[in-house]
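Kindly inspect this today.
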Amino acid sequence: MKIKSLIPQFNSFREIFSIDYRSLALFRFSIAALSIYDLLIAWPFLRDFYTDWGILPRSALFSSSSWSYHYVSIYNISGVPAVINILFVVHLIVSLMLLFGFKTRLATFLTWFFTISLIARNPMVVTGGYVMFRLGLFWAIFLPLGARWSIDSALNNVCENPVKLLKKSILSAASFGVILQVLMTYVFAGFHKKGPEWAEDFTGIYYSLHIDQFATTFGKFLLNFPTFLEFNTAFIVYLQRYGVLLFLIPIKNNYFRIIGIILFSFFHIGLNLSMNIGWFQIISIILLTIFIPPQFWDYLIKKLSTDKRKNLKIYYDNDCSFCKRIVFTISTLFLVPGTKVIPGDSVPKINKIIEKENSWVVEDYKGNYLYKFDALMYCFSLSPILFPVKILIRSKDFMKFGNKVYSVIANNRPFLSKSTDFMKFKPINPGTPWPWIVNIIAIISLVYGFYWNIASFDRWAEEENKDNIVVPQSIFWIGPTFQINQYWGLFSPAPMKDDGWLVLSAITKGGEYFDLYTGEELNWEKPKHITKTFPNDRWRKYLMNLWLGQHSDHRVHYGRYMCREWNAKHFGDEQVQSFWMYYMVENTPAPGEEFTEILSAKLHEHACFYPEEE
């Protein structure tokens, strides 16, 4: 045995801080899907949150406690619902472009811009997940997200001088920056947890699960296992502080990356099951995809490349630009890499079939030919992604309908070719455009983000330990303007030890009392599941913010909104004349102690109408 073989092989700097193009493709798809999902769940409440008819008109926004004059938002150009709906449509379109990787760099920039604009339009409804979301999109601007598994890469494959990726991964200032950004998130979150509940008594999770606005039914169930919670509290703190080292170990780095992804994913999944804090955990797992090593993708693709899939051949009409675009898009996005896509005119026998059937031709692994919609469904049945649709092949009506649609498309190929001319056959740039400029911006952004974290860490330090580290005013504007400012002190330095729920005690013109929030009989008792009383996470965040003294100026706007909404749908004596906003405060006792009496705090008194003089 050679001594050299016993010496561990160290991974290079490139291997540790490079990102596989396929991991970037998964990251692109996931973060775009999240953008679309967030838009769709926000759309029904568009009028409530983002127009002048909602809880925060623009006139109130610009003078509110949640506004920063550094913010930039295209959503502030109008407060009319019709205009905001149009902006939502544009926002959705650019997110879909990013999802499929069409004009990926432009789509990434626009998705980021519309996202930070939506955040700035109503900061009161912004949860912690949006911080990671906007930072992920910011760093995505500098990365070649469309290099693999995208429409851009499909159009590259069919152009005259296609760019071939000589390497599986990219190393750049942006790849270095986004990796350190993700790691910083965990490290600072871990060290912000410096209260005795996290670092000494290990009761952090116990107190967190008593926050009724967050805790799920499963989370409440876990309170029956105090020892388990103490163990997990310690595990979470040390995982956040030191677990990131798994991604930086220079020996067998690919194995340790996988271990790190699994550990942190289990942490996020467990947190998501026990606490309802929006999609914070989802975006966290999405950001972990950048660490998936090349060896994982090589192994997965090898396993997926069965004989049926490898021996699939697709022949297309080379004179039809629409056909080329569709065929290469399907093969690039949905089929295994290496699927043979061949011009029909290169094989005389196949070319005759194309002309006769007015269709593309798909050859299966046995040498059988399929045409039209049958060929499309066969390709989908072999796709590692779309294979579930093969169940539709059993439906004769569905297949009959599909072939009719295919015939309409086939008979209009010249028109469709012209209509899709905006999808140019051109090579992609798998590297960094304007590398010097982009790399300098990426490095400055990384240093700025690190300094912002240090400053926020010092701001929350004990008075005797403060070093008075602050972000200078001359560069402070960069953070909120581009929204790269960050603070990772969730449940820190100690979790909340009081929580509660809102009661809106209203009186109608007819003298009847009821709860304006629920629309039901006035009830001061604690709801069985407080977390289920919120329509969605935006409402939960907004209503929880109303309890905070720093946002007391928003209570009057909420009062006006509630009066408008109720009185627009009710008439006469049923209209609300005035209401009182109470917050029912419940303090969490130390483990083993009894709950104390629930207290009520009057936050706001609002008159919808003043009593008429007799």
Q: What stands out?
A: The first helix runs from residue 3 to 6. The longest strand covers residues 576-587. Strands lie at 19-20, 169-170, 313-316, 340-343, 361-363, 369-371, 498-508, 513-515, 576-587, 599-607. The chain has a mean pLDDT of 90.
